[in-house]
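tool_call: predict_structure(chain=1)
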Amino acid sequence: MSTSRYTKINTAASVAGVMLGVAGLLADHYSNAADWLGPSSAVVVGSATIFAAWRWLRPGTHPMLQRNLLLGLLAVMTAAGAVLAWPSPRSADASGDAKNVSVKSISVTKVGENGPNLTGELPINACLTVSGRGNIPKGYGIWVANNRDVDGEPGADGYWSLQRANEGDGEDKTWRTGRFGIGNEKGDANNYFWVHVFLIPPQTDAALSNFAGDAPGVKGRPAGSKVVGKYRVKRNDVRNCPWFKDQQKTA
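tool_result:
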């Protein structure tokens, strides 16, 4: 095999290695790929660039080529390092930011006794559960809250009666809250409220889990949360709901 042809094969192999490694890093960053893909891709990039330097660089013989290749290799490794260091969907778990996580695969199937696909308002009892389906990202939580209706829109006084949904076991991708109450048990019949369903990232999920039992409300939307759904509801009945008695005991 001629030297020229051998050099071309080495060049093609090195370039292909760098491209493959960079593609792997991008796939690791923008998808839920296996954890080993990112480090493995970095090894591929590094190996290909070292091989290229060893084959192509001859100090003192090709100074211009040496300088240009070193600059090019430095640029490639800098870009690879930037991709590895940049927050990915998995590192969003640590930062408490859910912006890179989609809620499209999570749905609400019931608000009280009704499906959420009804237009307008949903009739509910004072005591209800909220349930749904979907693959909840690891470490995240589904939370349900409510607030009062003001002229057909959610009020600005905060979110109350925060409830964390329980996830189904195994392959069952369902979730469901415990039974909880909305408004005042005896004073809010026929009044309107809004039920909100949030996907909440790990840090906020942990914080809410720690204090929700003693402070079942927050003044603003939970940090980093994404809206799964919100529904205008009307209290049409008053029932003996144990949730209200439990809240009076912890007040």
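agent: The chain has a mean pLDDT of 76. Proceeding to next step.
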